[in-house]
Design goal:
The protein is α/β, with parallel strands linked by helices. The protein folds into 5 domains: 66 residues; 97 residues, PAS domain (Beta-Lactamase); 76 residues; 157 residues, Heat Shock Protein 90; 119 residues, Rossmann fold (3-Layer(aba) Sandwich), CATH 3.40.50. The protein is built from 16 helices and 17 strands. It has a 5-stranded antiparallel β-sheet with strand order 2-1-5-4-3. α14 links the parallel β15 and β16. α6 runs antiparallel to α7 and α13 runs parallel beside α14. 28% of the residues are buried.
């Protein structure tokens, strides 16, 4: 090659090579920018995904916290079995989760409710789109039946239809509702029974009054005297029945005073032991038993009725246990409907008899309900027990199982009063010459009452209603020594009449009379100054004693 030509050749790469390298470099730098941008995008997406995942994790924790600590049982039911459940479900059913998942849910449902519940999940009533609710009973591992209220929501589980179930234990609510309805039913029956007993007492008053007068006119040597005496005995039996009805219905606390329940229990136990020797009676009485305000005669009736009921449940003999105790019931105590918290004297009567099923237990306090054969009982014994206890401000519980005996527990409100050391002495007389105003809207009562008072020697004025009585007393206040005043009259009630008589004469002497027993209204009138109370029907002896007591009191 020519030397000159060699020297003129350039030392740098030709133009095409230079353009290629520059292109490659640009492409490389562009790729780096794209990679950097994509990396930044991926890092941002990863950060966002981590943020979403963290939020999801926190949300799951919140939902699980709510789910696991919910007071309701929550579970998914798929093909008749539990697939997913919270802790409350295991607590309510008394089984662990593996057992719940391998056992058909129907096995946990009370047999009588299974068909109804199946219709909600599988039948026409099944919740296709909207939530449904129903109430049924479940059976725990221990065999206890509990009421639950269920909300059933349709969901999808693993691609198949299922239900999300919320179960709330409403057993306590159901017990309170049942107690409330029972109280309502008993009060309705009591109102009816009280009205019947009141009217029947007025009829018995006419019979007993005439019998008392006849016995005074017929000498004991006359053969008719004994027959009339028998009539009086039968009337007394009728009076005992009406008093049991009244004890159940509208109260019958005749003489309430501070009472030592232990003393009454000992007395009744002694009487029962002498009468029913085939029964072994055990007593366990609290040494420091609180005092209670009670009608001692009626509490004796309560005990004797419970004892006789126990004896009938043990025809072949058995054990009867009687206990007393002090019980303080607080606001959170499981107590019957409308029972006030406070201090109670508790009497427990238990037997080893035949016991009762649940259906019988629900009816035993209803009047005329009896498990005995026709003619062997009136069905008023436990009804009167219920009424007496209720009218003393207490309540009574019963627990019983077929073949395992019964336990009745009576609660009476404790009192702050002291028991008086000496009994009251009441003076009685057989008759007098004073003037008595007899007030009653029943013509029969006026007729027989007037005859009885005249037989005792009293001068009698009568009034067939409250307005007439007020006007008569206003005209002759100095002449009338005593008023026998009916409690319930159609024009003006006995309480209003008494108030008006006191306005006329603040020292008026009034004996309140009623076919009902001494209930709240009558007690309130007595507290306002009324001298005494006499319950229809009454005989001559009772009438003379009551009048003598008031007149002697001045």
């Amino acid at each position: 090659m020519h030397p000159i030509l060699f020297l003129k050749r350039p030392h740098t790469p030709p133009a095409p090579f230079e353009n290629g390298a520059e292109y490659i470099m640009k492409e490389y730098l562009s790729w780096l920018d794209t990679l950097r941008t994509r990396t930044e995008q991926l890092q941002a997406e990863l950060a966002e995904r981590r943020k979403i995942e963290e939020e999801r994790r926190k949300s799951e924790q919140k939902y699980r916290l709510v789910f696991e600590n919910a007071s309701d049982a929550i579970f998914v039911l798929h093909r008749g079995r539990i697939r997913f459940a919270n802790r409350r479900t295991t607590e309510l059913l008394g089984r662990d989760l593996p057992e719940l998942m391998r056992t058909p849910f129907s096995d946990f449902v009370f047999a009588d409710d299974r068909q109804m519940l199946a219709a909600y999940h599988d039948g026409p009533a099944a919740p296709l789109h909207q939530p449904r609710s129903c109430t049924f009973r479940i059976v725990t591992r221990t065999g206890e039946k509990r009421w639950v209220q269920a909300a059933i929501v349709p969901v999808t589980w693993e691609g198949l239809p299922a239900t999300l179930n919320f179960l709330r234990d409403i057993s306590q609510q159901r017990r309170l509702e049942e107690q409330f309805h029972k109280v309502q039913r008993m009060e309705s029956i009591g109102t009816l029974a009280g009205g019947i007993a009141h009217d029947f007492n007025n009829l018995l008053m006419g019979i007993l009054g005439n019998v008392s007068l006849a016995l005074m006119d017929i000498p004991p040597s006359d053969p008719a005297h004994e027959r009339i005496r028998n009539v009086e005995k039968y009337v007394q039996n009728g009076i005992a029945l009406t008093r049991q009805l009244l004890a159940f219905a509208r109260g019958g606390r005749y003489e309430v005073k501070p009472t030592d329940i232990n003393a009454i229990v000992r007395e009744q136990n002694s009487l029962f032991r002498r009468t029913y020797k085939e029964i072994t009676l055990h007593e366990q009485l609290a040494d420091d038993l609180w005092v209670t305000d009670a009608d001692q005669g009626q509490i004796k009736q309560v005990l004797m009725n419970l004892y006789v009921n126990a004896r009938q449940a043990m025809p072949g003999g058995g054990d009867l246990s009687v206990q007393t105790a002090n019980v303080a019931i607080g606001p959170d105590h499981d107590r019957p409907y409308e029972v006030e918290p406070g201090r109670y004297v508790c009497i427990t009567v238990s037997d080893t008899g035949v016991g009762m099923d649940e259906a019988t237990v629900q009816k035993i306090f209803e009047p005329f309900f009896t498990t005995r054969k026709m003619g062997r009982g009136t069905g008023l014994g436990l009804a009167s027990v219920y009424g007496i206890v209720k009218n003393h401000g207490g309540f009574i519980n019963v627990k019983s199982e077929k073949g395992r005996g019964s336990t009745f527990t009576v609660y009476l409100p404790a009192s702050e009063k002291k028991i008086p050391m000496t009994p009251e002495n009441i003076q009685s007389v057989t008759g007098g010459t004073e003037t008595v105003l007899l007030v009653d809207d029943e013509e029969m009562i006026l007729d027989i009452g007037s005859a009885m008072l005249q037989k005792l020697g009293y001068r009698v004025l009568t009034a067939s209603g409250g307005r007439e009585a007020i006007e008569l007393y206003r005209q002759r206040p100095q002449e009338i020594d005593l008023v026998i005043l009916d409690m319930i009259m159609p024009d003006i009630g006995g309480g209003d009449v008494y108030d008006e008589l006191r306005r006329i004469d603040p020292h008026v002497r009034v004996v309140l009379s009623s076919g009902y027993s001494l209930n709240g209204d009558a007690e309130e009138i007595l507290q306002r100054g009324c001298r005494a109370f006499i319950q229809k029907p009454f005989n001559l002896n009772t009438l003379s004693e009551k009048i003598g007591e008031v007149l002697a009191d001045g």
